[in-house]
Design goal:
single chain, about 325 residues, alpha/beta, Protein-Tyrosine Phosphatase, Chain A, 2 domains, six-stranded mixed beta sheet, disordered N terminus
Length: about 325
C-alpha cells in the first residue's frame, strides 16, 4: 500500500512538473484592458517636461525628460516605466535614481511598423502592473504620441481610428508626417499571446548616422534658443556658448557626411549634409567676429530650410 502511494505521488509530481515546464514556454498572459481606452487630458508642461498628455489612467506621452527636474516630474505623475521611441540613448541611470525603468524602441518619422506597435502593446500590458507608462520622443509632439496611441490601438479594439487621429492632432503631430497618421489609422487590435513577453533593451543599438542626426537636432534646438535670445547666451541656458554651439552643429554635419552609411545614400542626401556644414561654418565665423560679416538671420533661415528639405526627402515619408 505504501509503495502504491509512493508510485501515485511520484506520478502526480511528474504531471505537475510537466505542466509547470509547459507553462514556462508559453507567452506571458496579458490582462484585459479594463480602463477606458482613450480619454486624453492635456497635462501640459512640467519642470523638465513638455507637451505631456495623459491618454488614460495607465498611459502618458510627452517630451524626453530633461535632467533631474524632468524625472522628478515623472515621479510626481506616478510614472514607473518609461518608453523612449527617440534615437538618442535614454538616461537609464537617472531613471533608476527615481525608481523608474526604461525600454528603448526607436521609430522614425515615416511611420510605426506593425511589429513595433505590437511590442509596444505587449510592453504596456506588462509594465502597467508596476504603474503608469510614459512614452516619449524628443519633443513629445510627433513620434511619441503616435507610438503611444498605435500601441494602445493594437491592445484595445475600442480605440477607434478617429479617436487616435484626434489625439494626435491634440498632441500637435504635424500632418506632413503622413506615415505616422497612416500607420496609426491602420492599426487594429491583435492577438498578443504570440508576441514575446520580454521587455525591450534599456538602450537600443542604433547606427552611427542616426546618432549624428540626433546630435544635429539637439544642436539645432540649442541654436534656436540662442537666436531667440538675440544671438547671445540665453538667460535660462548659461551653458550655451553661441559660437561653440554652432561649431558643434557644423561638426555634426561634417561627421555625418563622412560616415560609410552616408556614402550609400543618394547624392542629394550627401549634398544636403555638405550645405549644412558650409552654412553653419559661415554662421560660426560671424559669431566669432570674423572678417567676413554675414546676415545671421538669413543663415539661420537657410540652415532651417536645408534641414526641412532633408527631412522631407529622406525622413518624413517612406
Amino acid at each position: 500500500m505504501v509503495i502504491n502511494m509512493l508510485k501515485s505521488n511520484s506520478r502526480n509530481c511528474m504531471i505537475l512538473l510537466s505542466l509547470l515546464l509547459a507553462s514556462c514556454t508559453k507567452p506571458v498572459p496579458i490582462p484585459e484592458q479594463t480602463t477606458a481606452p482613450l480619454e486624453p487630458v492635456m497635462v501640459g508642461n512640467r519642470p523638465g517636461l513638455h507637451n505631456v498628455i495623459r491618454l488614460n489612467d495607465h498611459l502618458l506621452s510627452g517630451s524626453s525628460p530633461e535632467g533631474e527636474a524632468g524625472f522628478r516630474s515623472l515621479q510626481d505623475l506616478g510614472v514607473k516605466f518609461i518608453v523612449s521611441v527617440d534615437g538618442a540613448a535614454p538616461e537609464v541611470a537617472m531613471a533608476a535614481k527615481f525608481g523608474m525603468r526604461y525600454a528603448h524602441l526607436p521609430v522614425g518619422y515615416d511611420g510605426i511598423p506593425a511589429d513595433t506597435a505590437l511590442k509596444l502593446a505587449k510592453l504596456f500590458a506588462m509594465a502597467e502592473r508596476e504603474g503608469p507608462v510614459y512614452v516619449h520622443c524628443h519633443h513629445g509632439t510627433h513620434r511619441g504620441p503616435a507610438a503611444a496611441v498605435a500601441g494602445l490601438r493594437c491592445r484595445d479594439g475600442r480605440c477607434s481610428a478617429k479617436q487616435a487621429v484626434d489625439f494626435m492632432k491634440m498632441a500637435g503631430t504635424d500632418p506632413k508626417y503622413a506615415g505616422l497618421y497612416r500607420d496609426v489609422e491602420a492599426m487594429t487590435a491583435n492577438e498578443l499571446a504570440g508576441v514575446a513577453g520580454e521587455f525591450p533593451p534599456s538602450v537600443a543599438t542604433v547606427n552611427n548616422l542616426v546618432k549624428q542626426m540626433v546630435s544635429v537636432d539637439e544642436r539645432w534646438d540649442h541654436v534656436k534658443l540662442i537666436r531667440a535670445a538675440g544671438w547671445t547666451t540665453s538667460k535660462g541656458h548659461a551653458d550655451l556658448d553661441p559660437a561653440h554651439e554652432v561649431l558643434q552643429l557644423r561638426e555634426h554635419f561634417r561627421e555625418a557626411a563622412r560616415l560609410p552609411e552616408t556614402a550609400k545614400r543618394p547624392g542629394e542626401f550627401q549634398r544636403l549634409m555638405s550645405v549644412g556644414e558650409e552654412l553653419a561654418g559661415k554662421l560660426e565665423d560671424d559669431l566669432r567676429g570674423g572678417k567676413e560679416k554675414s546676415d545671421r538671420e538669413t543663415l539661420f533661415r537657410l540652415i532651417g530650410e536645408n534641414c526641412t528639405a532633408c527631412h522631407r526627402e529622406f525622413r518624413d515619408r517612406k
